[in-house]
Design goal:
The chain is an all-alpha fold. The chain is 51% helix and 3% strand. It has seven helices and two strands. Strands 1-2 form a two-stranded parallel ribbon.
Amino acid sequence: MFPRYSFPPRTVTGLLRDLILSRRRSFRADALACIGRLKSSLHVFGEEDIPKAGSCVVTFNHYYRPNFNAIWMAVSIAATVPIEMRFVMTGELTYPGKWYAPLGMFLSKIVLRRVGRVYGFTTMPPMPPRPKEVEARADAVRRVLEAGKFLGLTNLATAGSGALARLEGPAIDALNAAAPGQWLGYTALFVFGAVCAFASMFLLQKIHDPREDWR
């Protein structure tokens, strides 16, 4: 049986007041009030791995089911982590394929940016990226980095594989063409990958694990 999700009326009215007046609020305090209202208590698995001090990055994936609002994922995390968090959120809802999309986008941009100011969140242009918003997206990343200081977010798998493919591709094609049917290029690719994997076993040992500082 799923728990019943409802927001405390006092929290809702207080948020509406502060949205109008543009006054700062604590998202963690509001999250604790919301979680305290749940009919079934919140269960946290792996709570011992949540750092009690220092900096960290918390990520979570999308989840959907009927009668469940995704805001409760952020609320649950904020109520569990023992410090005030700075969330990164979209600055606009796009409503693809809906007739009311233009009006919805306009209104959501106003409301979400005001929510970001009230809670101290960083808003980013929506996905997928639009060419006209490159500057705004870069500015949002800069604000996130300023807030986290040593925070870094990057898609190393995609960016790294794309760069490596452009460097290795011509060499692989040349080796394959040198001995047709022998596929020397692909053999060299697998050998290179094995060497890199073997080298990583030693290189990774030199990387400091920040979790050791929290124990």
